[in-house]
Write a structure and sequence with these properties.
Mean pLDDT: 91
Number of helices: 11
CATH topology of the largest domain: TIM Barrel
Largest sheet: 10 strands, mixed
Shape: elongated
Helix content: 25-40%
CATH class of the largest domain: Alpha Beta
Number of domains: 2
CATH architecture of the largest domain: Alpha-Beta Barrel
Strand content: 15-25%
Length: 358
């Protein structure tokens, strides 16, 4: 049986240094290689131009290098760019570059598929295929960062873990990817420019607090009563609103960071004054702010976008109660890159879904 090559990007700097010493190479070469991996975002050994050809050949023989690579890109009329990325095992995930007047945001995936089956989300209609490793998550950021500079001559400013998958069900790799993205030995981005979004895993929200993370946290709330939330988000049956409120407060007390509540507003489901009153009541339990998000249709979905006048009245009610509210307009709708639409129509992703359902 052929020996399985270790993935060099899953090795720490001391582990790489130990290999170099074992093979009689100067220790500083390991640091050069590590810099190529995480600071310069190399996708191949041959890009490491200050490493000799003989040493590169030797590394190829000993190590696997499995970068995530772009397979297909689509550009929206509003300048949003969605990219399908192919993983080494043939699976596909999607990432999105979202340009606005004040920021350039990368929306990235943490899993191929998802296990949570939220009723309004295209990714939720897929099965969970697997977790992404830290390098595969990092690669999305590195590529979209380059995409931002090449297409718009503007540096990437923000990162949101709001693509395919539930980040807190891939905790170890998500945290490691953020370390690579924020480290001076990596991309050097500020953790305060990163937001991790969760459908609501109470014990993992508490773990974020225990780990005293420096990045931002968003909860996909979408309904402020257990009855309604459980109808659209089955995860609520094991993570009630009371449990989530307690976990968010714990996170806030541990980190000093105010979490954000994401609230997709659906016509005739969660857009009434009564719904707004329930949301305002929930907000009182945790120092937080609210993002009201337009619903983006996903083809066979049972929900519709709330009327603009109703949305405005809903927001006005909250503002009069002193709630901090932002309305997030959808971006990239014409290429199915908006919130909740990932994995909806991309051919490569569709093929993977069909394969898993057979």
């Amino acid at each position: 049986m052929a020996e399985i090559q270790p993935d060099i990007r899953k090795m720490t700097l001391p582990e790489i240094q130990a290999w170099f010493e074992l093979h009689k190479h100067p220790k500083f070469r390991a640091k050069q290689v590590f810099e190529w991996l995480w600071k310069k975002s190399a996708t191949d050994f041959d890009q490491m131009t200050n490493i000799s050809l003989d040493l590169r050949t030797q590394m190829k023989a000993h190590f696997a290098f499995r970068p995530l690579l772009p397979a297909e890109s689509q550009k929206s009329s509003d300048r949003t760019i969605k990219t399908a990325f192919k993983l080494y095992d043939g699976q596909v995930v999607e990432g999105v570059l979202i340009p606005t007047h004040s920021r350039m945001t990368a929306c990235i995936s943490s899993q191929a598929g998802c296990s949570l089956t939220c009723k309004f989300c295209a990714t939720g209609k897929m099965k969970l295929i697997r977790n992404l490793d830290a390098g595969e998550i990092y690669d999305q950021v590195a590529y979209i960062r380059k995409q931002s500079e090449e297409n718009y001559a503007i540096p990437l400013s923000n990162i949101v873990y709001m693509g395919m998958g539930e980040p807190l069900l891939n905790y170890k790799n998500v945290i490691e990817s953020i370390e690579k993205i924020t480290s001076p030995e990596g991309l050097g981005m500020s953790p305060q420019r990163i937001t991790v979004s969760t459908a609501g895993i109470s014990k993992m929200i508490r773990k974020l607090g225990d780990d005293e993370v420096k990045f931002n946290l968003a909860l996909s709330l979408h309904a402020a009563t257990d009855e309604k939330r459980s109808k659209i988000m089955p995860i609520n049956e094991s993570n009630s609103l009371d449990e989530l409120a307690d976990a968010l407060l714990y996170f806030y007390n541990k980190t000093g960071t105010r979490p954000t509540l994401e609230y997709i507003i659906f016509k005739d489901f969660n857009d009434s004054f009564e719904d707004a009153a329930h949301l305002e009541k929930f907000v009182r339990r945790v120092p937080t702010k609210v993002n009201i998000i337009e619903y983006n249709p996903i083809g066979e979905g049972e929900f519709q976008r709330a009327d603009e006048a109703q949305v405005n009245q809903f927001v006005s009610y909250l503002e009069k109660k002193g709630v901090i509210v932002n309305v997030r307009r959808s971006r990239g709708k014409d290429i199915d890159a908006a919130c909740g639409q990932l994995a909806n129509k991309n051919k490569a992703v569709t093929n993977v879904v069909r394969k898993e359902e057979v």
